[in-house]
Design a protein that fits this description.
By secondary structure, the protein is mainly alpha-helical. The protein contains one helix and no strands. The chain has one domain.
């Protein structure tokens, strides 16, 4: 009984951790793209 409850709890933790990791990667990717776009625009405006 306890083993089943533990596996369900650890499964939820794994799903939550995976979702958090994916979200962090997506946010980091968006931030990098925005920074690159900003630098690109600055370079174009400076010319």
């Amino acid at each position: 009984m306890y083993g089943n409850m533990w596996s369900e709890a650890s499964n939820e933790v794994a799903i939550t951790t995976t979702a958090a990791a994916i979200t962090a990667v997506v946010v980091a990717g968006v931030v990098v793209l925005l920074m690159l776009a900003y630098c690109f625009l600055l370079a174009c405006l400076n010319e």
